[in-house]
Amino acid sequence: MSLDRGKWATGGPETVVPGVHRIPLPLPNDGLRAINVYLLADPGGLVLIDAGWSIPESLAVLSEALAGLGYRLEDLTDVYVTHSHRDHYTQAVELRRRFGTRVHLGAGERPGLDLVLALRTDVPVTSLDVLRRGGAPELAGRLAEGYGEFDPSGWEPPDRWLDAGTVALRHPLEVLPTPGHTRGHVVYRDAGRGLLFSGDHVLPHITPSIGFELGEPGLPLGDYLDSLDLMRAFPDTRLLPAHGPVAASTHTRVEELLAHHDKRLAETEDALGAGARTGAAVAGALTWTRRAVAFDDLNDFNRMLAVNETVAHLDVLVARGRATVSEVDGVARYS
Ligand SMILES: [Zn+2]
Q1: How far apart are CA 43 and CA 328, in angstroms?
Q2: Burial of 27 (0-12, 13-18, 19+ CB in 10 A)
Q3: Which of 2, 10, 160, 241, CA to CA, is 20 to 30 A from 89?
Q4: 171 lies in some domain
Q5: Helix, strand or coil for residue 203?
Q6: Does residue 135 form part of some domain?
């Protein structure tokens, strides 16, 4: 491929259409490299979609990018956040603290955020429970020990919880709930200009993790596949993702993601056929990331995401009648 795959992260701001600017903000020590926030210049104010991770270097890059466009941080009136993961949400809280910026978040994120505030922890306790249920208690124990002190500063409720509806801007934004990556994830659709601000729901290069949050796990992959399907109910748009470059078609990527999960479900079923019985055993039999890395070569955090994702696929197979599950000593055994 002639195009540098990482250029979207390091190349600085990009004007997508007049008045819509993609601004990549740094995520140091994170495999995702950067998060795109999108600046919308509206007659009623200056709007951001997603805000970045609240660290000094991110705020500095945002400030510089705004200055290059003739704005200041204090000109930001509203931030519409796609979901409450720290790389999207915490800087919105910081902007509000400093400049009074209004923060908006999907109503479905409320239970997860309430739990973070109640438990006061960064430890992904729900994902660790899924790990234990998936037959990987040692991994859960190691991960639980790896977390430092909880920093509560970025975890405050938004000013407004958003339901499905429309944000009244000159170019109105439809708010579409898309549960899966998190329960309360939303995407913002500008139908007039044919743009979809997709957050982590539809990403051009990677498949988003599923259900990495606090609270009842439910059937996150089933929700996610339904939310992908929902994108096909609308005319196609350009794809403006939170990680990766802008792409010409949302539908093309949605088809690829649906095909990926179909293949994954088939591989999961094959691993069951070959005798694997737990989430951890099936995860160990599969390869990971687009580079087909062996499970044992992943770090602990990515092993957690891998086992969680495998359990999510197994639970969808059960829901579709292609597998059965029984619980033995707190471990789900599939066949
Ligand atoms: Zn996320």
Answers
A1: 60
A2: buried
A3: 10
A4: yes
A5: coil
A6: yes
Query: Domain tally for the chain?
Result: 1
Domain residues for the domain of 220 are: 7-256
Cβ atoms 307, 271 nearer than 8 A: no
Distance 140 CA to ligand 1 centre (A): 21
Tens digits of pLDDT across the chain (335 residues): 435 678 999 989 999 999 999 999 999 988 889 999 999 998 889 999 999 999 999 999 999 999 999 999 999 999 999 999 999 999 999 999 999 999 999 999 999 999 999 988 888 889 999 999 999 999 999 998 888 788 888 899 999 999 999 999 999 999 999 999 999 999 999 999 999 999 999 999 999 988 888 888 789 999 999 999 999 999 999 999 999 999 999 999 999 999 999 999 999 999 999 999 999 999 999 999 888 999 999 999 999 999 999 999 999 999 999 999 999 999 999 99
Cα 143 from Cα 134, distance rounded (Å): 15
Torsion of CA 178, 93, 116, 9, to 10 degrees: 60
Give the distance (Å) from ligand 1 centre to CA of residue 85: 5
Task: Identify the helix (H) or strand (E) that includes residue 256.
Answer: helix 250-273
Distance from Cα 328 to the centre of ligand 1, integer Å:
32
Residue 303 lies in a domain: no
Alpha helix locations (H) across 69-204? 86-99, 110-119, 125-133, 137-145
Ligand 1 centroid to residue 160 C-alpha, Å: 20
- Are the CB atoms for 185 and 201 separated by under 8 Å? yes
Q: Which CATH number goes with the domain that contains 132?
A: 3.60.15.10
Q: How far, in Å, from the CA of 127 to the mean position of ligand 1?
A: 14
For 51, counting Cβ atoms within 10 Å of its Cβ (0-12 exposed, 13-18 middle, 19+ buried), the class is buried
How far, in Å, from the CA of 185 to the mean position of ligand 1? 9
Contact 46, 75 (CB under 8 A): yes
Task: Output the pTM of the full model.
Answer: 0.94
